[in-house]
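Team,

Forwarding the record for the chain on the shared tracking sheet. I've put the sequence and predicted structure together so nobody has to dig through attachments.
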Amino acid sequence: MANLLRKRESPQRPTFLELFFDLVYVFALTRIVHELVLDYTRGHVAETLSTSLSENGETLLLLLALWSIWTQTAWTTSRFDPFQPAIQVVVVATMLGSLFLAVAISGALASTGMLFAGTYTAIQVGRTLFFVLTLRGHGLRRVNMLALVWFAASAVPWLVGAFAPELTRNLLWALAVAIDYLGARLGWPVPGLGRARVSPWAVAGEHLAERYWQLVIVALGETILTSGSSLLRGPIVAERTLALTLSFLTTVLLWRIYFYRAGQILGEAIAASANPGRLGRSAEFSHLLMVTGVVVTSAGSELLLMDPTGHAKPAWVSAILGGPALYLAGRSLFEYVAFARVSRPRPIGILVLLAIAPLMVGRPPLGVAAAAAVVLLGVAVSDAIRAHGRPLEQASPPR
């Protein structure tokens, strides 16, 4: 059914349906943040950074699964016309499935593991099978046939892991996530059938660029939602009000750092690239790092509002400072995608955050959050100084 395909001359702007779809991910990211906060506040976990990283690894698996669903949906609406009723049904069905995934997050590593694994595999296998059945005679049918083999393969460890003990489950789900991500990265190669060589970035770079920055806005919006809700769960006193203000300032700085030039011209960079597919994959990974950084920062904000004047435990410091550091790492890669270079303030900011982390253990969380905000402010101010009085820099992606 060639009429399902997006026409090259069609507007590349995301549709209201896609913005509607993103609403579920506000809730989903909120649940991920909740799980991170639980990770950071479990007795022994809060005391040692190494243990907290191990605990966070389980929550990261769930985030990666959600990211895979969102990314595949963004690719779908880049290749196919979202105004076609059949595509709208696919997107809305994926939206419902994503809602079930979000609901299952809180117990996905225990009581609701089967709901999470079953819903995830149903979305990936079901959606891909739909396109295999409807795209008869079109080259994209073969792409979906190859992807279907990989999603069917990853479904086995997903479903078996849902019934396995904790350690086995984590290993099986890590394997399943690896299969899904490796398959997409390699073009879903299947012996005897070859691999897919069609990249949506090559034909819809402008659309995908806008979808990724919309997801960044969703993630930043989640930090505001979490911070405001956290303030309401306790007395509204001066210290907690200041904590909310710091959290909001941090969110504003993350927004400013993202949209400073590179965040506005990703579509141009993709169009100017000699290899849009490779550049698009780098852009995708950079956004995964940034969204993960925002999520961790949001968890740090909730920890801050719990006890703003207490003693910051090692795991709390890792969240409050580590989130912005991870965000700057993703933003550095993103800048390289757009300009084939990285401004020095970004890696310097990462090094400063890492260097001060040991010094912040035991200090009031307000002080830790203020230090993170000062570093981000330094990066944002350096951007403004560098841009002052100069013409807007044009995209110059790596060759």
